């Protein structure tokens, strides 16, 4: 009897400023192996760190076969050229860096790049199993990925979903983008950490725990943060009217209390508008706090064909 054929695994890498999270998935989408490692910044460091994670995943597989490597990475990504630029937190802040070519040569497989939020959006689509959704990432910044009518929407300049840079306060502080009073200065992981600093642990977890315990100051900060996220949800819903809004990113580790706070903010914000209330925005919310959607989405990236 001949041995059963085993399909090669697909690898997904979620490359962040501090760590790389890698997974290998089989043809059925099941996670076969998982690995995390610290990110070494700089051109050589990022390539070497990523290649090390791929090697560890390959060693963990029964046959060591990998069909493709998908990479989700912050910055401006040219998916066809396989380059990334303006990934400042990775030390890749110069010209377009040919990460796909260099990592592919080091890892021995075809590499395809995607913006990290878009990769996570693909993962959210896989986990939620709906063909019309917005993925709202509450990380260091605030950004959204759009998966509409069964396809990822990147935008003409790759800027679709940059809802964090909607100015909401003309008298507010200057954002890193150069505008004043942007939404991510209120509704992002960095904004939350600045409003509720902690000596140890995750600021979001500390804030929500304190608010649940009845700390009035924590309740105020939590509700202001939730109002900002709800404003982003409203803007996205009015722009593209998705079936589902999936909340992810570092703040999403809070889980259900985060969803409840955003839902309550949406209800408050729509009370005076029968039109907005009829859209039932709160009922569309989901929070992904456990599934590694960014790495899953990276593994599902389809290699670009010219």
Automatic annotation (TrEMBL):
Keywords: Kinase, Transferase
Family annotation (InterPro entries): ATPase_NBD, ROK
Listed GO MF terms: kinase activity
Signal sequence interval, chain numbering: none
Pfam families (alphabetical): ROK
Similarity-based family: Belongs to the ROK (NagC/XylR) family.
Entry protein name: Putative NBD/HSP70 family sugar kinase
């Amino acid at each position: 009897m001949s041995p059963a054929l085993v399909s090669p695994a697909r690898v997904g890498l979620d490359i962040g400023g501090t760590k790389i999270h890698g997974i290998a998935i089989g043809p059925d989408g099941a996670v076969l192996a998982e690995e995390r490692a610290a990110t070494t910044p700089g051109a050589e460091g990022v390539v070497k760190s990523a290649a090390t994670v791929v090697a560890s995943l390959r060693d963990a597989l029964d046959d060591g076969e990998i069909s493709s490597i998908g990479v989700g990475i912050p910055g401006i990504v040219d998916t066809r050229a396989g380059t990334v630029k303006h990934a400042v937190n990775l030390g890749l802040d110069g010209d377009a860096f040919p990460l796909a070519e260099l990592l592919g040569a080091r890892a021995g497989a075809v590499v395809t790049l995607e913006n990290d939020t878009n990769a996570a959006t693909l993962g959210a689509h896989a986990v939620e199993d709906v063909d019309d959704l917005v993925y709202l990432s509450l990380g260091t910044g605030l950004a959204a990925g759009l998966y509409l009518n069964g396809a990822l929407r990147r935008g003409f300049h790759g800027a679709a979903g940059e809802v964090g840079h909607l100015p909401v306060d003309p008298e507010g502080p200057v954002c890193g983008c150069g505008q004043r009073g942007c939404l991510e200065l209120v509704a992002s992981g960095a904004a939350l950490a600045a409003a509720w600093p902690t000596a140890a642990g995750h600021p979001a977890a500390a804030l929500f725990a304190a608010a649940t315990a009845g700390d009035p100051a924590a309740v105020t900060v939590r509700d202001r943060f939730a109002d900002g996220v709800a404003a982003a949800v409203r803007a996205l819903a009015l722009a593209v009217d998705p079936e589902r809004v999936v909340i992810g990113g570092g703040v999403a580790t809070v889980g259900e209390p985060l969803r409840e706070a955003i839902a309550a903010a949406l209800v408050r914000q729509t009370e005076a508008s029968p039109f907005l209330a009829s859209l039932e925005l709160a009922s569309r919310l989901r929070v992904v706090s456990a599934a590694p959607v960014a790495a899953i989405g990276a593994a599902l990236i389809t290699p670009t064909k010219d």
